[in-house]
Design a protein that fits this description.
Layout lengths: L1 H16 L1 H13 L7 H19 L3 H15 L3 H17 L3 H19 L23 H10 L2
Length: 152
């Protein structure tokens, strides 16, 4: 029973820590319907995708995956960017021959953009099949700072 309580408490702590970023994202979306992310944030998103491509090209697959997760966190509030990262994750799963990742990315690819469009995203979720698709997760301090400074 104590372990279950600690797990629930951990999830609530993460959800509370991300509440500020979630409110910034919702405020940004509720003011106007955004099909693409703000240019200031897009720069950081594209930088993560470039780091992914460089790491993938050199065979550093763990770094490549890490960069996809970071791009997912930055882009998950916008339908096109969110779906594109899931597309790249699906292709990555195929490349590494991971049935779990491929099967996990298909539903995420189909509904991820829709969930972004309606504002129902688990903030901080890294997007891989190794984590539940609806679980909010803690955001690294550098990404948190990027999101906070570009969503005001």
């Amino acid at each position: 029973m104590l372990i279950e309580f600690k797990a629930k408490r951990f999830d609530l702590t993460i959800e509370y820590q991300n509440q500020h970023i979630l409110s910034l994202i919702y405020r940004r979306i509720s003011m106007k319907l955004y099909w693409s992310m703000p240019p200031s944030l897009r720069q950081h998103y594209q930088q993560e995708l470039q780091h992914y491509q460089n790491a993938f090209a050199t065979g550093n697959l763990s770094e490549a995956w890490h960069r996809l997760e970071r791009a997912h966190i930055l882009g998950q509030a916008w339908p096109l960017e969110h779906s594109y990262v899931h597309w790249l994750m699906l292709r990555f799963g195929i490349y590494i021959k991971s049935t779990k990742e491929v099967l996990g990315q298909i539903p995420r690819l189909l509904v991820g953009g829709v969930k972004s469009f309606v504002g129902k995203i688990p903030v901080g979720n890294t997007g891989g099949a190794n984590v539940p698709s609806l679980r909010p997760m803690d955001i690294s301090p550098d990404l948190k700072q990027i999101l906070e400074s570009n969503l005001k």
